[in-house]
């Protein structure tokens, strides 16, 4: 039993040190978990930005239909250039693990 009448001063010090260790460990866990959650949230936001930008560029493409019924897509040079820059930006941030590759 921890709180018995036979506990001496040095045993209380040991119990106090063990309690402080446990409290410090719990505090470190509570401090570190939000950091990783924030990082995951930032990564998700970056992924979403790239996806939204990609679909914005896809929406700017102009599908056309020929006289024989075939469909082709007219892609202006500015759209192709923007797609290239988007891919380049994503490849630049990939080593920093800002975006997912999946």
Protein topology:
Layout: H1 9-59, E1 62-65, E2 71-74, H2 77-93
Antiparallel strand pairs: 1-2
Fold and architecture overview:
This protein has 102 residues and is mainly alpha-helical. It has one domain (9-96). The chain is built from 2 helices and 2 strands; from the N terminus they run αββα. The chain has a two-stranded antiparallel ribbon. Helix 1 runs antiparallel to helix 2. 0% of the residues are buried.
Quick take:
The protein is 67% helix and 8% strand. It is mainly alpha-helical and 102 residues long. The longest helix has 51 residues, at 9-59.
Supply the key terms.
single chain, 102 residues, mainly alpha, two-stranded antiparallel ribbon, rod-shaped
Supply Rg.
Answer: 29 Å
Helix content: 55-70%
Instruction: Give the tally of structural domains.
Output: 1
Biggest sheet architecture: 2 strands, antiparallel
Share of residues in strands = 5-15%
Count of separate DSSP helical elements: 2
Number of strands: 2
Strand order of the largest sheet: 1-2
Structural class category: mainly alpha
For the terminal residues, how far apart are their CA atoms?
54 Å
Helices and strands, in order, run as HEEH
Calculate the mean pLDDT score and round it: 83
Shape: rod-shaped
Oligomer: single chain
Indicate the low-confidence ranges by residue numbers: none
């Amino acid at each position: 039993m921890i709180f018995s009448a036979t506990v001496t001063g040095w045993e209380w010090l040991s119990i106090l040190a063990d309690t402080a260790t446990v409290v410090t460990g719990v505090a470190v866990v509570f401090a570190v978990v939000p950091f990783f959650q924030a990082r995951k949230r930032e990564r998700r936001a970056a992924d979403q930005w790239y996806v939204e930008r990609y679909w914005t560029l896809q929406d700017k493409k102009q599908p056309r239909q020929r006289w024989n019924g075939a469909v082709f897509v007219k892609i202006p040079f500015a759209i192709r250039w923007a797609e290239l820059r988007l891919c380049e930006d994503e490849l630049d941030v990939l080593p920093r693990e800002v975006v997912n590759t999946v």
